[in-house]
Write a structure and sequence with these properties.
Number of helices: 10
Low-confidence stretches: none
Number of strands: 10
Mean pLDDT: 95
Structural class: alpha/beta
Strand content: 15-25%
Radius of gyration: 20 Å
Oligomer: single chain
Helix content: 25-40%
């Protein structure tokens, strides 16, 4: 049998904090315990927020922690062709449509919908897409695209779910409400998620499932903040005929107020802690891995 393959996949849009250290160390520990492989992936599809200095800092902080990974490192910005191919497969199934509303227009539409009652929101709290772009004719879509108007490509969730009913995943860790074992997937809870934009032929959801498949990731160890997103990932895996990994979601490192850590939280930043004299062993103790 092939050795298990793990991955740590940060975005270089800020410096790493204790929460990242916890996830990276868990992946490293699992790879060592199982005699598996650990890959590092740089998720840098957001060109407006990702910066080279943050990527360099990721390598430095992980090396300081004692995390060892295989090379070369996969950088998502170098693999848009792979995501575009996956997007084309979804389009060929008739599951993708362009929506042309701006964020401000979506906000206004949601406000109008909520005048008649609560508008549905996804597990992250974002409102479902409130527009009617699905009903545009092919000619009208082409006309709008030809004008150069910005757009987002959305997954027709209802049509996608009809093609992939009864989804679930194997949870080796624990969800926010203690979910374990075989967990039913509920991708419909996310509405018509964005799978790409005019200027970027992918989204987090699409690129992560494509990368996990291409890198043969067998066990995904990540925070509980991504537990519910697994429903979307399982849907895309089935639609694109990609292999199914197992998942091990872990609890989050939180601040004194109980909030999820942010990359702007200097008090928990690895670089700040290191400058203050912290050691790798001390970081393990801070996150409960001593």
């Amino acid at each position: 049998m092939s050795p298990p393959v793990f991955r740590f996949a940060p975005s270089p849009n800020g410096f790493l904090h204790l929460g990242h250290a916890y996830s990276a160390l868990l992946n490293s520990d699992r790879a060592r315990e199982t005699r598996g492989r650990l890959l590092l992936r740089i998720e840098d599809i957001d060109a407006t927020r990702c910066r080279p200095e943050y990527e360099t800092a990721i390598y430095e902080d992980l090396a300081w922690l004692g995390v060892a990974w295989e090379t070369p490192v996969r950088r998502q910005s170098e693999h848009f062709d792979a995501y575009r191919a996956a997007l084309d497969r979804l389009s060929a199934l008739g599951l993708v449509y362009p929506a042309f509303e701006s964020r401000a227009e979506i906000t206004r539409l949601v406000a109008a919908r909520e005048a008649d009652g609560p508008w549905p929101r996804d597990p992250d709290g974002a409102p479902f897409y409130p527009g009617d772009a699905r009903s545009l004719s092919a000619d009208e879509r082409d006309r709008l695209i030809d004008t150069g108007a910005p757009y987002a490509l959305r997954l027709d969730m209802a049509a996608a779910c009809r093609r992939a009913a009864g989804l679930s995943w194997n949870e080796l860790g624990e969800g926010p409400d203690g979910e374990r074992g075989v967990v039913p997937a509920r991708p419909e809870a996310w509405g018509d998620v964005i799978v790409a934009r005019k200027e970027t032929p992918t989204s987090y959801h699409l690129s992560v499932v494509v990368d996990d498949a291409l890198q043969d990731i067998s066990e995904i160890v990540r925070g509980q903040d991504l537990f519910h997103a697994t429903s979307v990932h399982r849907l895309l895996q089935v639609l694109l005929r990609l292999p199914e990994p197992v998942y091990r979601h872990h609890g989050l490192v939180r601040d004194q107020g109980g909030r999820k850590l942010s990359k702007s939280t200097n008090s928990t930043g690895l670089r700040e802690l290191r400058a203050a004299g912290a050691t790798p062993a001390g970081i393990r103790q801070l996150v409960g891995l001593d």
